[in-house]
Amino acid sequence: VAAGTPFLQFYGFVFFYLAGLVYLLVEQIDVALKIALGGAHILSGLTIYLFVREATRSRKAGLVSAAVYVLTFWHTQQILIMGRYPVSLVYALLPVPFYAFTLAKRRENWGKVAFAGGATLALLILTHPGYGFWATAFYVLHAGICWTVERCRRTRILRSGAVSICVALLLSSVLTLPM
């Protein structure tokens, strides 16, 4: 709130729409926010578990990473103490594009999964443009590393990564083009 800037000015609209939808169900704004925040917190643990389990093929690694991801002080402090509510949705959505990419590079029917990964990247951008940009940058870095390491799947990695990036940019252009 420094220098008179509006609170939450650099956040997108996705979290606020989610909180509004929950409000329509419970008709109490404080309860709606608590449900949205709690649901996003639980979802963040589930999504990181899915990604790490798929990437490492180990349930134990997925469980440990989910516990660390959810119980890290910064995760809770940034949302509840600093009041950055939309970031709770960023934490929940952040592992999903990487999970979708990992699935897409291993499956024959990679198109739908790559599209879902791109749609999730777009949701990240529409939730928080800054975090969405960095998530996309690290997604491209991750895809590039996979492309150099996994020589037998290079075509599928390139296609699924390109589809995801194109879908993300197309769906989030409503917010990013005016910038």
Description:
By secondary structure, the protein is mainly α. Helices cover 81% and strands 0% of the residues. It is built from nine helices and no strands. It has helices at 14-26, 29-56, 59-71, 73-81, 86-93, 95-106, 110-127, 129-149, 154-176. Helix 6 (95-106) packs antiparallel against helix 9, helix 7 packs antiparallel against helix 8 (129-149) and helix 7 runs parallel beside helix 9. The chain is globular and about 55 Å long. The protein starts with 13 loop residues before the first helix and ends with a helix.
Quaternary arrangement of the chains shown?
single chain
Helical percentage: over 70%
- Spell the H/E element sequence: HHHHHHHHH
Q: In terms of per-residue confidence, which ranges show pLDDT below 50 for 5 or more consecutive residues?
A: 1-5
Q: What is the count of helical runs?
A: 9
Round the mean pLDDT to the nearest integer and report it.
90
* Overall form: globular
What's the main sheet like? none
Strand content: under 5%
- Structural class by helix and strand composition: mainly alpha
| Radius of gyration, taken over Cα atoms and rounded to an integer in Å | 17 Å
Distance between the termini: 21 Å
Tally of DSSP β-strands: 0
In short:
The chain is mostly helical. Helix content is 81%, strand content 0%. Mean pLDDT is 90; it is low at 1-5.
